[in-house]
Design goal:
With about 280 residues, the protein is α+β, with helices and mostly antiparallel strands. It folds into two domains: about 1-120, Aminotransferase class 4, branched-chain amino acid transferase, N-terminal domain (D-amino Acid Aminotransferase, Chain A, domain 1), CATH 3.30.470; about 125-280, D-amino Acid Aminotransferase, subunit A, domain 2 (D-amino Acid Aminotransferase, Chain A, domain 2, Alpha-Beta Barrel). About 25% of the residues lie in helices and about 30% in strands. Bound molecules: N-(5'-phosphopyridoxyl)-D-alanine. N-(5'-phosphopyridoxyl)-D-alanine binds near residues 181, 208, 209, 243 and 245.
Length: about 280
Amino acid sequence: RTVYVNGDYLPEDEAKVSIFDRGFLMADGVYEVTSVLDGKLIDFPGHLARLERSLAELDMQKPAQFDDLLEIHRELVTRNGIEEGMIYLQVTRGSAGDRDFVFPDPETTPSTLVLFTQNKPGLADSPVARAGMKVISIDDIRWGRRDIKTVQLLYPSMGKMMARKAGADDAWMVEDGFVTEGTSNNAYIVKGGKIITRQLSNDILHGITRAAVLRFAREAQMEVEERSFTIDEARDADEAFITSASAFVMPVIEIDGAKVGAGVPGKVAPRLREIYLEESR
Ligand code: PDD
């Protein structure tokens, strides 16, 4: 696999970053995941805009190659022959050659830019999308700026492990009684034909797939309500689902061991998945 590091395309085993990189020592970095279908990038402008915002919110310098990011993505897709898969991009505050809580001077410490591809044949035609997924609920104990896509993914990873241990696929996180989001996706329920998902704030990531799916839903005359909901309300809903760049739209058929609706994918989530894949590829 060819990867990209700070201006160079290299075989993955020749790519290197410093052990003092603040991404490594302090999780001082942000990332984006963009899907590739039919060799084409999905929702790229949205991911780029969110990356720019994440960097600005953390006073992090744009990497020198920022304006070339589209070209770098395309080059990696071509070089690695990706038809279906993902591109991971990470920017960290770089390395000042030591460990220090104080941010280094951006003039002398450039940010680190890393990209790599993940080949995922069958990403669009997913068996999980046909069968639906099971989720458990866990406390949301993450920090208060979840709108910034940082690489601090320890708790989401722990959440996935808790889910796996419970025989489920993922976890929905709950704060003050209300669902915030999934460990790596936005959460939705459907009741009486209405699509309900948490309103945007610093409490959740502003999903790029969320924005597109809600736009397509409204264009298809589906009713959308952006508000918080509880796990009880979700268990009582007709349908539940998640969205993300890597999962697109996935039905959720079980929450904490209780069936949602009939316990099989309903009408709305599979329809939204179909529309999303049709419109964005
Ligand atoms: N995760 N919420 C969280 C906490 C996420 O990590 C993600 C994305 C989303 C969905 O955002 P988008 O639709 O822009 O992908 C919501 C990516 C896919 C990941 O970490 O792999």
